[in-house]
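Field: COMPLEX_INPUT
Field: COMPONENT_COUNT = three
Field: RESIDUE_TOTAL = 979
Field: MODE = joint
Values follow.
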Amino acid sequence: MFGKKRVAVVGAGLTLFRRNLKETGREMCYEAAKMALDSAGLTLKDIGSVAYGSAPDAFDGIHMKGENMTDSSGAWRKPFSRVYVGGGTGVFTADAGWWHVASGLFDTCLVVAEEKMSSCYPHPAYAFTTIFDPIMDRPHGTTLIWIFSLEMHRYMHVHGIKKEQIALVSVKNKRNALDHPCAQLGAKITVEDVLNSEIMCWPVQRLDISPTSDGAAAVVLASEDVAKKITDNPVWIDGVGWCIDSTYWTNRDLYYPDYVECAARMAYKMASIKNPPKEIDVAEPYDPFDYKELHHMEGLLLCKKGEAPKLTEEGVTQRDGDLPINPSGGLLGVGNPIAAAGLMKVCEIFWQLRGEAGKRQVPGDPRTGVAQAWGDLMQYGSVIVMRR
Amino acid sequence: MCRYLQAKGSPALMYESFIVFPPNNIEFFQKDALEVKDVRDVAIIGVGCTGFKPITPDVSYKELMFEAATRAYEDAGVNPRKDIDAFITCAEDYWEGHSIFDEFVPDQIGAVLRHLFTVSSDGMIGLATAYMLIKTGEFSTVVVEAHSKASDVTTFTDIVQFAFDPIFNRPLGGHPYYMAGLEMTRYLHETENTREHCAQVVVKNKKIALSNPYAAHGAHITIEDVLQSEPYAHPLNRLDISAVADGGIVIVLASENAAKKLTDKPVWIKGIGWNSDTSWPESREWGRAIYAELAADMAYKMASIRNPRKEVDFAEIDDSFSYKELQHLEALKLCKRGEAGKLTEEGETEIDGSLPVNASGGLLGMGHAIEASGLHRVCETVLQLRSEAGKHQIHDAKTGVAQIWRGVPTATGAVTVLSTEVK
Amino acid sequence: MSAKIKKYAGEEVRSADMKEGKVPTVRYRPKARYVWSAGIAMSRFLTELKNGKIIASTCNECGRIMVPPRAFCEQCFKPTDGWTYVKDTGTVNTYSVSFIAGDASRIKEPIIVAVIDIDGASPGMGILHTIQEIDWKKVKFGMKVKAVWKPEKERTGAITDIKYFKPM
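Field: COMPLEX_OUTPUT
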């Protein structure tokens, strides 16, 4: 435990995740923030500060887009800050909310994450070409899928993993997502469907990837004294962690995410977790591609290196297994509005620990949950540990 | 202090606990006040500045950042690979030309496999974030970085335009600084300040910048020069607008315990505040810098400052447009509303006046360093308080205020109160 | 809460509707142009590429030979100490075969992309490039490859002065 001021999540809100939403970025922020406030029984005047997270401005098509979203995130005449760590932003924004309250400066913080990828024409994927180094990578026409497929192939090669094993993750998550009211791609698919889907960039095939989406999510954080007045069932943020690796991704061995382990250790230390597979009841690692769930399970120290496919095959990671992974349906099933997807995972852990996840509820009264997001050029890990 | 596992693995963090009295201008859910107990302060223990120049074609932005970081760590006496608990960079993608800019940051500031993140805002809000991190008790030393490589951006004002709302404002077209022109007109209309007062700010700041080796745009000009320069967005002329400059700054902060071990010249952050007024320009009160008023309230409350004019010795504030220095002085309650022009006219804001303002040359003299501007306000304040400002040193400076605005089209700003005195 | 909430906000529209103007839209194309100073390290690297060579920087403290070269060693956090040429051959660390272009449209001829660890540099010092003159199904991990350069007068000082790598 740390600090005399513990921080709790007391409310959560989510919009639908879809390929195109009519709402503007501002409107989506408002909907998610309002829903989170309503769920906590609070109004805007109870909010002391706002932490906002969103990934590339290139999607919404607004430079300094945080400044455009201040009002709609509840920050009219309030302290507002935007954090941005690529794909890791979703979970990291909750970490940012944590320090607003844990510092003692504010009793409450409204955390909002939003992404409007559909504004980017002809296709949001095009904006991803600008994340690469202009001298070494961009001249080849490098796309985001290339770097994922290079990592996936390396991971498969080092541990001798087959595509059939990895495809199980996509099958599991899309099926889990059928129970999520906001999901974009919930579906009953089979391993054969994945293996027969269109090859994008070998070994990545269409059903291995999460979609581009629009969406927003929000949570309300409160300090211990305030949280206990708002709800009988606060979910405590017991650990936060984040870590970044070198930009020279071609100089690193991509088979293992050191940066996720480093971030996880930071969070586990804060939360006094010594044996992660035993002490963690449910986990939401970031799964923009199916192999990433396995990669991150290992980085989160939930199993040994190379062991994650076996756990998946044995059904350990199903909702009723010993270590449920992505009961929400993850990004593969619910959708991937980058920053909002990460915060969606935090919302999911919040609902799971309170027993409010409805059809997605993992049995057995889970008390400790972990959400994790990944970002940048195979560089960033952000982790949050929540407990009831 | 903090110990690290080599190369991989996370640091062993030190645990410090305390409670801080919350600022009053924000309504709280609970009605009973928190007691003030064991308030631990946060200090700046090192600054590193590369200096600002109009262009820097010989170095890449990475090399610029490396220089600033090396200087800061040398000043603070720390090894970034071992001694720093968190790193913050303040950057926006479109100023850099790379999406997800934090990808390109860790190597040159010593943050590989360490705890770095980006705050997409001005450096001073990054400073506020570092302050909060240390106040949680989980972090002892935090680094904040910001830089400007504006010379790499060949379509700078188009990027400023790109920040305007796409549905309601951008379709109007025009040079984006019309928004500052609108504000200047309203501000001068509502107060007794005059166009000449604004021009005098430019003259003052550019002249004193000649004494600052870090400044990019020092010059000897007259009020007439300013009034005769080409009109950009009436009533703004070219010389009313701060020109951009390249440069990098890194600042190292530490908790009270760590500061006392690492340095004998800490500069304490007595108060810090930041605020965002409405993002809809249509709804703003154009004559007042409300974001600055509210940020200042928050910072002064934290610093227990009740009479700013008396308790603050000097100020380093945002003068990105000439009238902004006057508007911000009033918003910071360093003079009465409408009086900033008179104060300037009477020479009170000169370096030898009763309230030196922008003795560094401000943004007009040093150059607009985009997101690093807030940090160069802070850096100059720190140098003054440490008596290291050289030719532009203010005498008997004990408490200074640094302030920044994020520029057109935002209504976001931050204020920091710094002092050599810990209590 | 999620079990109790009945309605989630969000009105879906179809991409086709947006393109055909059935949904009110505003279009804008930003003018975002940059000329990045390559700086000390990369300027040397690009100049050497024009000469048909790959150059690396060295750090005396950790002993690494680094490609792409840099002015500072990020592990030791100090300026790098020197330059040394490395070979234009390497081994395939990982590879992938792309059937799509940057905007997610399909391309006819697949592109084989790879991270190639450069011989002469420290272990694992790879660069990103493409591989040609081989059927994509035959590429192997650890395969040895060699750079195929553009003719001297066509080189401009860019990573594309190497056209591609081919198997040795």
